[in-house]
Amino acid sequence: MPNCMGYIVKCSKCGKESWDNISWKCECGAPFNIVLEEKFSIDLIDKKNYSIWRYKKFYPYIRDSMVTLGEGFTPIIKFENNLWFKLDFLMPTGSYKDRGSSTLISGITSNLKGIRYVSEDSSGNAGASIAAYCAKAGLKAKIFVPENASGPKLFQIKKYGAEVYTVKGRREDVSAAAQNARDSIYVGHSWHPYFKDGIRTLAYEIAEQMDWKTFDNILLPVSAGTLLLGVILGFNHLLDSGIIDKMPKIIACQTSQVSPLYHKMKGSRYVQPEKILSVADALITTNPPLLEEMYNMMKKIDGDAEIVDENEIIKAHNSLAKKGVYVEPSSAVAYAVYLKLLKEKKLSERESVLIILTGSGLKSMI
Ligand SMILES: [Zn+2]
């Protein structure tokens, strides 16, 4: 395939290319990545568009038919001292996932007509987000959820008109059911390259909102890995294009119950609990398909990982709310890690820190 497309969809492991836009996994079993051939240029930003689509020029696989609900360009606030928050819970469906859902649904519908059903597996936020963008695009969504899914997120998925299927067993069983759904195209957010690729906009926004300077550290919660990888992809693109001059230190924040990346990075064995009983109910991917890629990427950029326990998460969650910031407990995990690193003097107040707050408190019942 000639390179005039401006991008390549390439296997992260064997390098095989894919051009059909609905393949979500390579024959070798590894996930695909979008490799951009164009450099980032500030002149190509659509400055009158205050959504992720101000960066449309850097999404060559999406033609004119964007499926958008006005996602993106969320505020960055200085919270205290040298600590800043990116308020990415201020999104149409209440979570950062809308970045990926918008590019994913736009990508599949602008290149392939005649799709009616798509299937997705999710424990909440991604399911609600995909359901919303499918509703906007006139697609029917089948969302497969674990049997313990409940509360506002499940209600939200149903309200958007998606068909909800409850699957017993482990998180992997829920994925398998979605992948094998009849008459559907699987658009699982953990797998499909268009989803992860939409998260690049988060890095672009952070850099642009800070006048193309970067923070010393960026802390973010990690589960399936799309947020982590998307942010790194975006910063790498800016770095390779000479727009920024350093990669921020990326710190992956996990719970002590669900911490496969942390353990892999520290060289210790991760033993998953029989049952996950964490208040951070959005962080439940114990065996992420993107683990290898996350690990390799974090090694390359000299990133780090940290874990916090339930008490630390609850304390951080309450402390944020007491200062006016109402996020879901999974988002508070990154703030809990910040407090821990500060206490252990692994982080100094002189260093600038940005925490990405990913999900709204209105979606939780804790
Ligand atoms: Zn491959």
Notes on the structure:
With 366 residues, the chain is an alpha/beta fold. It has 3 domains: 3-50, no CATH class; 76-96 and 195-363, 3-Layer(aba) Sandwich (Rossmann fold); 99-191, 3-Layer(aba) Sandwich (Rossmann fold). Helices cover 33% and strands 17% of the residues. It contains 11 helices and 12 strands. The strands form 3 sheets. A 6-stranded mixed sheet has the order 3-4-12-9-10-11, sandwiched between helices. A 4-stranded parallel sheet has the order 7-6-5-8, with helices on both faces. It has a two-stranded antiparallel ribbon with strand order 1-2. The longest helix has 15 residues, at 226-240. The termini are far apart. The relative contact order is 0.13. The mean pLDDT is 93. Zinc ion is lined by residues 11, 13-14, 16, 26, 28, 30. Zinc ion (ZN) binds next to loops.
Quick recap of the structure?
With 366 residues, the protein is an alpha/beta fold. Helix content is 33%, strand content 17%.
